[in-house]
Amino acid sequence: MNIVDSCGWLEYFADGPNAGYFAPAIEDIKKLLVPSIIFFEVFKRIYQQKGEDLALQAVAVMNKAKIVELNDSGAVFAAKLSVENNLPMADSIIFATAQMYKAVIWTQDSDFEGLAGVKYIKAKK
Fold first, then answer.
1. Helix (H, G, I), strand (E, B) or coil at 2
2. Cα(47)–Cα(28) distance, integer angstroms
3. Looking at CB atoms within 10 Å, which of 42, 61, 69, 108 has the fewest?
4. Which of the listed CATH numbers 3.40.50.1820, 3.40.50.1010, 3.40.50.150, 3.20.20.140 matches domain 2-120?
5. What is the pTM for the complete model shown?
């Protein structure tokens, strides 16, 4: 299973320099999980920069994958991982979801660099 972090989705939708890195994970829909917090982050950024229509189109693409909602046990696990790994809230929720589903996180967010189960690529400008 795979989880593409918000920055990976944004890179893919913008056809940025690392879009090709994220494409295999995003396009393998049967193995793709999307934690609900990623919907928030992706919609918000695209809505701010490009407007509601494009933001809705992006989340429609994301909805083709398996959506993972945050529940109470996931929130507690994420909080624990946040403290143990010094992760911000959204990143800890994504990391906890990956741990619970034995998924690989694809990202260019340096907060994840060096964590187990993470495929990290440095962001290109």
1. strand
2. 25
3. 69
4. 3.40.50.1010
5. 0.96
